[in-house]
Amino acid sequence: MNIYRLVYYSRNHVSSDDASYETAVDDILAKSRVNNVRDNITGALLFNSGCFAQVLEGPLDKVEATFERIQQDERHSDVSLLGLDPVSQRSFPNWAMGFVGLSDADAGRFAAVGLSSGFDPSRLNGEQIHILLRDLTMEEENSF
Amino acid sequence: MNTQTAAATTLASHKVEQLSFERILQGLSTAVIAIDATGLVIYANATAEASFEGWIIGLDLKDLLPGFTLLNVVQSGPTSMVLSSKSNESYEVTLAPLGDGHFVVDLRSSSKQLEAPIQTELDDLTGLAKRNMLMSHLTAAVSRGSDAASFAVHCIDLDRFKTVNDTLGHSIGDLLLKKVADRLNSACRKGDVVARLGGDEFVVLQHDVQDVAAAEKLAARIVDLVGRTYVLNGHTINIGASVGVAISEESSQPRDLLRNADLALYEAKRFGRGRYRSFESSMGALLQERRDMEVDLRRALALKQFELSYQPFLDLNDDTVIGFEALLRWNHPLKGNVPPLQFIPLAEENGLIVKIGEWVLRKACLEAATWPGEMVVAVNVSPLQFKADNLLETITSALARSGLPAHRLEVEITEGALLDDTDNVLITLTALRELGVKISMDDFGTGYSSLAYLQKFPFNKIKIDRSFVAGDNADSEAILKAVANLGISLGMSITAEGVETAEQLKRIRDERCTHVQGYFTGRPMRPEVIPAFLNQTLLATL
């Protein structure tokens, strides 16, 4: 089956107070995990208080359906599609969804890879975000 | 009675008959229309005009009754059908042949629809409500009366949908419509009615609307959601949505609400699309005026209401008239002389300018061919005429039919013509130049005034906008001087427009403009007075 990779980022409309922020993120992640396992979609999610950046990998129709769900989710706005391309293999094969939160350590890590407090994803193309996400999530995975 | 008087009596009674038949028709409470073989309305009685809120002669019956087609109409006897107007009035329509492919059409209002129970027929493609279902929900909402909560009607049009259909095909277009329907559903609450009226026209009936803000919140959400990127079969698609909102008030009727939302939608589109507008009562009158004018404008060419007047321009070397600019005039039978600023932008918007412009070219060439000597006629050509792709052909044939030598025609273009598709426009301009036609750049100084355009094409003439001539400040003067010098060094003539006083004339002379045009040197005049005007100025210079 042909695998496609879709990369986007969006502004998020999640309140930044701690409790509701965590609830919203948990909710988004929980829903994503369920849907994505069912749809044979893997990927990665980068998330801070202002932006989502996400890679989705899977069959074209499922990737499109997932993206459409995101487009209809009020918590996302200014969704920018950075890339949609067929790929020979998944970069995130065993992994449904990861999360990089807002801890000081993460902030430091963003700065180290050129994503300072501003985190301006519009200056990155899809491939770069994808590489960035892969590195971040692998690191995250290893830390467990 | 001799044969002669018998014939006269027959003729007289014939006249009386004609007069009274017309009166009878006008007096009928049934709408009566006559159409020609192509379906265009050639007669409408007063009831018919009232039913469609305006003068409908010259319009296509399809435009009045969207479902109408001549295909099912037989020539041998009457044909009946039930059709709905755009405002969703239902009519029993009967067509009877008049010979020559003409038909008399009578329309009887069938009001059954209002009493009918809620219709439930759904749109095959999107699963949304169809027009009838929307109308019955709307009627039900209205009939709940003023005690119930208000509701809102949102009329939605997709921006750039046609481009998607044209470039990616109808199957992608259909998929897109489905996704739009999904997004509309997800933007609305349960109980709201989302309908597709056909094509890319959608309507949302929003229930329990507490205030204007609640309706506008949904409208903004629709603009946002529908305008987000779509991914379909691997294609990335971006369209927009324009929304017009109307909120129910006491005694509002379904038809009024839909019309009001539609008027607001029209405004949203006029203000640049991808946005919503709420209905305001002033919109009705304003837009009605614009629409009336559009209908009038469509008829004006056929009814020969346009004419040209001509404003002379002078060569400042020897102060002689060397030509005239053709200016379009619209003599409206009721409104009188309609100023170009009131109808040219509208004609540009709806594309009629292409046909009007063609008429202007042909007429101007014909009239200029009767002028003495080497007198030139300057004709404005709209950017849309370049896009229409037959400008060269039109000009060639206008010259051939009038016998006007090409060098006596001057085509005036604005920068707007060069903004898009510059290469093709340059090809057309070059071909025109090769014919011998002169090309001038009009209104220079008001738009981008890009010097690159002057470099890309060797214009014969630059016309400096009147605002720099009228302004008597140092800035205007500096600009005037700069453009004049620029023209001289590029080998182009410079016309100063809008010269109204002797003082202004002196100034532009000092700044080395080569030509002048304005009230001071000659007002626009009707073609028949041109010979006398030329004789007079000739005498004056002697």
Describe the structure.
The complex is a heterodimer of chains A (144) and B (542). Residues 106-120 of chain A have low confidence and may be disordered. Chain A has helices spanning 18-39, 60-71, 104-112, 126-143, and strands spanning 3-12, 42-47, 51-58, 76-87. Chain A has 144 residues and is α+β, with helices and mostly antiparallel strands. The radius of gyration of chain A is 14 Å and the shape is globular. In chain A, strands 2-3-1-4 form a four-stranded antiparallel sheet, with helices on both faces. Chain A has one domain: Alpha-Beta Plaits, CATH 3.30.70. Chain B is an alpha/beta fold. Chain B contains 21 helices and 21 strands. The longest helix of chain B has 25 residues, at 3-27. The mean pLDDT of chain B is 87. The chains are: A alpha+beta (144), B alpha/beta (542). The A-B interface holds A 4, 6, 60, 63-64, 67-68, 71-72, 74, 77, 79-81, 84 and B 179, 182-183, 186, 221, 224-225, 228-234, 236.
Chain-wise SSE layout:
The complex is a heterodimer of chains A (144) and B (542).
Chain A: E1 3-12, H1 18-39, E2 42-47, E3 51-58, H2 60-71, E4 76-87, H3 104-112, H4 126-143
Antiparallel strand pairs in A: 1-3, 1-4, 2-3
Chain B: H1 3-27, E1 31-35, E2 41-44, H2 46-51, H3 61-64, E3 79-84, E4 90-99, E5 102-109, H4 112-115, H5 131-143, E6 150-159, H6 161-168, H7 170-187, E7 193-198, E8 201-209, H8 212-226, E9 230-232, E10 235-237, E11 240-247, H9 254-270, E12 276-278, H10 281-300, E13 306-315, E14 320-332, E15 336-338, H11 340-350, H12 353-368, E16 376-380, H13 383-387, H14 391-402, E17 409-413, H15 416-419, H16 422-435, E18 438-444, H17 451-456, E19 461-464, H18 466-470, H19 474-490, E20 493-497, H20 502-510, E21 515-517, H21 530-541
Helix pairs in contact in B: 6-7, 7-8, 9-10, 10-11, 12-14, 14-16
